Amino acid sequence: MHSTLLKRFLNSCSDNLKSKIGNRKWPWLAVIAFVLVACVGVALAQQPAKVPRIGIVSGGSDPSNPGSNVNVFRQGLRELGWVEGKNIVVELRDAEGNIDRIPSLAAELVHLKVDVLVSSQLRGIQAAKQATKIIPIVMVTTADPVATGLIDSLARPGGNITGLTLLTRDLNGKRLELLKEMVPTISRVGVLHPDSVPVRIRFKEYEAAASALKIPVQSLEVRSQNPDFEGAFRTAVRGRVSALIMLRNSVLILNRKQIADLAIKNRLASMSERGDMVEAGALASYSTNEDESFRRAAWYVDKILKGAKPADLPVEQPTKFEFVINLKTAKALKLTFPQSVLFRADKVIK
Question: CA-to-CA distance for 194 and 225, rounded, in angstroms?
């Protein structure tokens, strides 16, 4: 096989040389130079183009769900002309709800030397930043990327990180306001969250927002590994919690149906940071349009693959927000809403 390929290569060189010099007489040094140039040109022309590799760190994706964040991002790539198996390779590393695995998964993709690394997981973004200053990183994060030290500023991120921030913290007060408007009788709100440090910080942010609204809040913390949601709801009942906030986190996302069912069983009105949790049975959500954000992340990857530097791409903040209500859940909880609330909903699940 090798001898056949070599013969074809030399024949290509010969044909290329003949087309260059024709029947003219050339000094022997010039002929050798022409041979080398012709052969190098043929070799370069025959080399296959490099296929870019995109690394994705996911906290808990659902490949069977076309609407999952990872699949929406992949669809965004296809819309921009990047087709997996043709002109791009996607390396997905999924923590499957085990957030402790996220840093090692990010490090693994850095070791593979992917062309761009994409993640919505704060720990993954931080681990990737520590592991590389060269590989571009596109983030879709609920954290404050400036306060957490990921970037220098939104307008001029600097370094190798850019992307989008979902402004979850800035929406905390709005969620509590909507919950109070939907259920005026609530007296105490429980905040369901895993025991990770970043999520504990977000609970503190809810405490501050609730204090301004004079609404008492209670932490309902569960383990990241083998979370005891039933135990958390027993704690909520003992603490006379009358409504529930569910934080955006991979542990809760993977268990959203069980959580929504437990909220209904314990007659707790629930507000989520994600619309898909309302589809699973939560009462309502107020959030950014995540599909648009992850589709936009594909735009960042496209720009970087075409030569743009992350430091020169400003970090975007969301401009579209969605208020979603599940009327089936409202009926199960025997709740009725003012028309003013229903008119403001972007989506109503019946």
Answer: 9
Q: Where are the beta strands (DSSP E) in 176-260?
A: 189-194, 217-222, 243-246
Strand blocks (E) in 120-166: 137-141, 161-165
The owner of tokens 């879709």 is 140
Token pair of 53, please?
């590799």
Q: Beta partners for 68?
A: none
Question: What is the reported pTM?
Answer: 0.76
Distances (CA, A) of 300 to 73, 90, 106, 296: 11, 15, 19, 7
H or E stretch including 348?
strand 347-349
Q: How far is CA 321 from CA 68, 139, 170, in A?
A: 18, 19, 12
273 exposed, middle or buried (CB, 10 Å; 0-12, 13-18, 19+)?
Answer: buried
pLDDT digits (tens, 9 = 90+) for 74-111: 999 999 999 999 999 999 999 887 888 999 999 999 99
Tokens representing 121 are 């997981």
3-state secondary structure of 245: strand
| DSSP 8-state secondary structure symbol assigned to residue 51 | P
